[in-house]
Amino acid sequence: MDKKIISTGAIFGMLAIILGAFGAHALKKVLSIEELSTFETGVKYQMYHALFLLFIGLATALSQKAKKVIYYLVVFGVLFFSGSIYLLATNNLTSFDFKVIGFVTPIGGLLLILAWGVLLVNYLKKKA
């Protein structure tokens, strides 16, 4: 499981860098400042959670069960939160109105919060 967690963290990190560069260069010309800022928020949260996955994969104080729960919460959280933000920020570039999927953004945020909560609860339960 650790290899899967670290690999996913590395992939999320690489994609965050690619998307950040894409936003800073290609999208800068076609998005408003507000839309670009929204896009960058998605990139930041994706990178934060890529690093979080690397930490979780390397952590020895967590059970494999806790790591698995955190992994799935983060993966779906990033896909829902950052993914929907990317689509919403670039909404004006397509004919499809991505505002109809806007409800998944807070669900993704909740999943990310829960992942951190699982880490906290498992750490506090750990015997000294």
Number of beta strands: 0
The helicity comes to over 70%
Radius of gyration over C-alpha positions, nearest whole angstrom = 16 Å
* Overall SS class: mainly alpha
Percent strand: under 5%
Can you write the helix and strand succession as a string? Answer: HHHH
Spans of at least 5 consecutive residues with low confidence: none
Largest sheet: none
Report how far the terminal alpha carbons are from each other: 25 Å
Apparent shape: elongated
Query: Count of helices?
Result: 4
Q: If you average the pLDDT, what whole number results?
A: 93
Describe the structure.
The protein is mostly helical and about 130 residues long. It is about 75% helix and about 0% strand. It contains four helices and no strands. It has helices at about 1-25, 35-60, 65-90, 105-125. Helix 1 (about 1-25) packs antiparallel against helix 2. The longest helix is centred in the middle third of the chain and has 26 residues, at about 35-60. The chain is elongated. The model has no long low-confidence stretch (mean pLDDT about 95).
Layout of strands and helices, then pairs:
Elements: H1 2-25, H2 33-58, H3 64-89, H4 104-125
Task: Describe the structure using short key phrases.
single chain, about 130 residues, mainly alpha
How do you describe this structure in short?
The protein is mostly helical and 128 residues long.
